Batch of 4 targets.
Target 1
Amino acid sequence: MSSTPSRVHPAWLPPEALAPLTSGTAAVVGDGPCLDTARRELAGARPAPAREADVVVATGDACADDLGLAELPAPPPRGAVTVRTGGRLVVVGHDGAAALRGLYAAARTAARARLAGRSTPDGVSIDAPEQPRRMLDHWDNMEVHPVMGQVERGYAGGSLFFEAGRVRDDLARVHEYARLLASIGIDAVAVNNVNVHEREAHLLTDDLADVARLADVFRAYGMVTYLSVSFGSPRLLGHLATNDPLDEDVRAWWRQATDRVYATIPDFGGYVVKADSEGQPGPFAYGRTHADGANLLAEALRPHGGTVVWRAFVYDHRQDWRDRSTDRARAAHDHFAPLDGRFAENVVLQVKHGPMDFQVREPVSPVIAAMPRTRVAVELQVTQEYTGQQRHVAYLAPAWREYLGFRLDGEHTVAQLAAGETSPDRPQPAGGLAAVSNVGTDAFWTGHPLAQANLYAFGRLAWDSSLTAEEILDEWVALTFAGADDAALTRIAAALHAMMDDSLARYEAYTAPLGIGFMVTPGVHYGPSVEGYEYSPWGTYHFADRDGIGVDRTVATGTGYTGQYPSPWRETYESLETCPDELLLFFHHVPYTHVLHSGSTVVQHVYDSRADAVEQLDDVEGAWASLADLVGTAVPEAYDARVRERLAEQRRSAVEWRDQLRTYFHRASGIPDATGRAIY
Ligand code: GCU
């Protein structure tokens, strides 16, 4: 099923995107896999000595004189110095990976300048990533799962890495993919699903030579490779009697297994672990804590410099819906906050951005600020599980920016807490940013071609969270359509801004309202099913009755979740007066007639925004249609066909959401829509 299509869209790195760097002479100074990659990227240029070449790529050990420069500032850790002078461009990376990333950054700068109609001035720029770890997690399975397909929550075909139960022989597309990731600054990838099924558990032992082939590809683009491993490996793979993290044989098994990994892949990144979560084995079975569990693997990885990425997504997925006292939103904080300070130094605790599960609107997870002595990484979901599954246009950068800029402890932003850039009195160690990838064997990589922008935006925001969503979209457009002439490029950018800038807000407006979340078809999580999860064990309820809707998570009368926030948020969310409208139903159970800060009632808001959002799709479709004369030139025919197919499905699905939600709320409340628009 996952055969490689013969012609693949180049995403944001078509040959034209690098053309500004290869039109003259070039030199690459130094050795190593990333510099070799830089050499290949510049192969179209004429070779010249580094002192005079138009484009030079080097690492920090090169001296200014050899590069034809009067002086050269030292490149920062993980970053690069770029010198533009007299028509020359010199990129000097801290190491080979940083130099390669700097080369791609120069292509990006050129593309953006072109779109803006200006030239890049001479000068020195010093650029380093805000997040020290920028990781992509792939939920890829080796085998095709009967329900999930090959990539769990994947909406873009099969796995790029695996085919027919093993690592692909032909890794040409993995090279292309790694190149895309390097260009947005990613430095780590986990290649297999966090739900580790039996076959994939063996990657850790039996398939190491094949994993090494993947690691070779990623290394050439400046990335280290991680594996998701099963906490149950000692029993499953080693046939031990237990997985108890304090058992001596278990500890020895992990040490030996890890030694073998590093004997095969010396720069291996480490392990990603989903334990005691949604059926995955974990330390709870042995009466041990998650610190015991994580430290077991940390001990095995430490001698090799490896890292354990331990996920905080731990909750009871077999809850009784009758039980109103258990609150899934509380679970990660309840389990993990008490363990602060008990994790080994090479453990990173990876926390989903919200307390539930990647809903279109959630408050920021309080866990991110609750563990100042722990390396906390924030996990985002690029794959659009709950945001339209790469059939709807939903540009996620505006939401990610909001999360990353949120001052969770009243002082530091989420980006700062993850980056470990906190004040001297709160020296939180760095965890970084991670995200679940959205790619597959699809010819456009991401199903919806415009979903490429989400992958692009994740890397860029991990690099610099002060970039605006609009700036990032400009970059992506300018690189993706680098082959278009100036006039066409300007029109494409305008059309895509019209389609994408507010696309997530629009998606939110026709789906579940005011932070309530879910209301999706169970299992597949696509399309509306208002009561789909209401009587299920998953802990995702809305409690709608004839009078009102919402989850009371207050300290005063509810589950107490608001109490997990530091001030001022605990007070802000606790009070109906100050709780923001968009999160109202996440924190409070209110009557349908409750008046929002916007002045509308809850029920009228549901009626209006669902209907308005669907009406806006006329403009979205119109914006794309306005490019019709460019199809076949600046916009490939197949690209246009795919976008139009997706827009039609988006409309069909959005209408279904609108009609089901408006009708449900009308039937539940008995309150008519003041605008008189159709209800069924
Ligand atoms: C979601 C998703 C699962 C996934 C889980 C996770 O619940 O639906 O498919 O396994 O997140 O993050 O582990």
Note: The mean pLDDT is 97.
Target 2
Amino acid sequence: MILLDSVSKQYSGDSSPALDSVSLHIEPNEFVFLVGKSGAGKSTLMKMITKEEVPDSGKIIIGGIDLDYVKKRHIPGYRRRLGVVFQDFKLLPRRTVYENVAFALEIAGMSGKDIRKTVPKVLDLVDLGDQAKKFPDQLSGGQQQRVSIARSVARQPKILIADEPTANLDKLTTEEIIGLLKKINDFGTTILVTTHNENIVNNLQKRVITLKDGKIINDQKNNGIYKLDEKPAPARVMQTPGHALRQRRRVI
Ligand code: ADP
């Protein structure tokens, strides 16, 4: 679903690469956290997927599309196939919640009739059915992020990528947003999320990929924990599976 093969990228003027021969394969329906210290290359990797940046070398194939062959004029159309969620929501301030979602569908070429059917459904999915007439500045941060997620999933993308979607949210709202991403993942969407939030990574126990200095230093395929360096994680006391789980939750 997401395939990077030996992808490297160095921005002009930088002395070291932002991505250094990164290879990874994310299967359909996976939920993956991408973690790493600031400057590790997370945003650059996301920008490779959205084709906001192009690699110096290496191959990128997203949903079966080889990005080398996506010409400039087709990039907006390609991006509409992805769901993209940003940390600052990027909502249209002069449009209502309903219109923000409807507008994205209109741009994607959906008919008025289908838009009128789809928007209430996605607003219900994100639990904002009763806020449709409000403007973004009349909503909390968490509600704004839910509108932004509604807008991204309305076109039913196969892949949703989110760069620090909870960076501006408090703890409770963060949990809500991650719960929502998990629900969308349960419906079959492949999800890639960058985050600095150790708790959500450890609680969700999904795949965790760690970047450091532009390289993947760790790829924990299952039950991943938040780990920024190569050094081993603290030892877990393993007795019965249930015991191990309880121990682990206590650590978290
Ligand atoms: P992260 O998202 O993990 O914080 P980034 O992908 O933003 O990391 O950055 C990786 C490296 O690339 C850093 O050294 C950063 O300074 C550099 N970088 C990112 N964007 C640019 C840019 N537009 N021009 C020059 N250097 C950049």
Note: The pocket of adenosine-5'-diphosphate is lined by residues 11, 14, 18, 36, 38-44 (CB under 6 Å).
Target 3
Amino acid sequence: MTGAARGIGAATARRFAEEGASVAVLDLDEAEAAKTAATLPVDGDEKAIGIGVDVADAAAVEAAVTRVVEELGKVDVLVNNAGITRDNLLFKMTEDDWDSVINVHLRGAFLMTRAVQKHMVEAKFGKILNLSSVSALGNRGQANYSAAKMGIQGFTRTLALELGPFGINANAIAPGFIVTEMTDATARRVGVEPEAYREAAAAATPVRRVGWPEDIAAAAAYLCSDEASYVTGQTLYVDGGAKV
Ligand code: NAP
């Protein structure tokens, strides 16, 4: 699970551990990843480990996946969750804003999936889950992020086509507003207190509340379960109806 030291990734790691899985928490900072891994409820033969990796770095990704297989024995599930935002209106967006976002989301998901798929193909089993966003449908100030998140949906559909014959399912979740560091940082950047920003988001959402990382973790648990073995290539919007 990438980007799992905090936010949606950490909640999903917790949910998977609660369901009896061993979990590898991958994040930029190994100490933070290990700290989160140490809080996960694992017992018996299950393990939780933390590994530092920049998902946009091909060599680091190969090394991280090798470590996961060595330490946990196999990879049944890959969750491509690591993400950043570098919001700016198009006329102010720098090449660095564009490249960093595309690199973490798209190059990162590509590199991680390429490294993991060989183990899954060998095992004839695997579940790949990619994090898209409602911003894939377009969002002012997020030309880079929305392009990456719609790219993730096309990537997911192609993985489903190529890897389905090997017992591997690939799906995506497109969250709406989920309370994490990412949305709190966006609030501060636009000069609004995070609490007021959440209230405005809740008011603009049909179910009249914001989403929490556990909402995404629940959908992730379903999509990576045997019950969803006939579901592949899909993007599930988990957004309280925000984009209906
Ligand atoms: P978050 O709280 O900012 O957590 C993202 C994590 O990814 C951080 O721990 C971050 O590490 C890590 N990360 C960033 N760049 C990385 C890299 N190159 N390699 C490895 N790890 C990296 O974000 P979140 O809100 O949980 O979002 C998780 C995913 O859901 C993202 O893909 C995001 O785009 C998507 N999403 C979120 C929302 C929302 O409302 N929150 C909505 C739609 C989609 P550092 O802390 O070291 O930077």
Note: The chain has eight helices and six strands.
Target 4
Amino acid sequence: MNPSPVIVALDFPDQAGALALVERLDPSLCRLKVGKELFTRAGPPVVEVLVKRGFEVFLDLKFHDIPNTVAAACDAAADLGVWMMNLHASGGRRMMEAARERLEARSHRPLLIAVTILTSLGEADLAEVGFRGTPAENVRRLAALAADSGLDGVVCSPLEAAELRAERGEEFLLVTPGVRPASAALDDQKRVMTPADALAAGASHLVIGRPVTAAEDPVAALQAILESIVNS
Ligand code: C5P
């Protein structure tokens, strides 16, 4: 298994832009995340190209639908050879269990993680859609439900990692965006941690986009991040 905790977010509007970066990256130093924009524009072939080049791919499509539909979508993602995929925990236990069971029927099961509460939602936003309590309370409840439904982990803010690690134990995956090297711009991220601090707080994987993809020398930027982790 790839020992690097870094997942580079390929937030590009087209395959050419994504592949221009990927050509310079080494699959032993990072994994790649394909999200809704790139997938909607470039489609499954971009995922297949990345997998063929030896990269482990996190397909970040955040499925949320009736159990049968989500299970079928997860099966389709697995057919592309992805390493990990995700869904919304708020789709409920039956939806998560159906997805997990469908993937378990395969000879090689990709990892399945859940989004709990989007970090863009505050308490007032949650109240408006009928969720009681603070974002943190809802994150904890939905992470517990995801674990109970047999999922491998959750996407979370690095600021939530310590508490979730303590509650959910060592095996549960905590995949954290909102990570910035000390020297990098915040971009539109508000509450961030450095890669070393996020890992120390309990993150198992770090999703890092612009600090690598927008760097003048993306390979050097990734290497500096990996060194900052080793030296911490
Ligand atoms: O460029 P940057 O490092 O901010 O990219 C972070 C990636 O993680 C993006 O693909 C973004 O959509 C995703 N993400 C996030 N915050 C969340 C959930 C996902 O930044 N709460």
Note: Residues 114 and 197 are 22 Å apart (CA to CA).
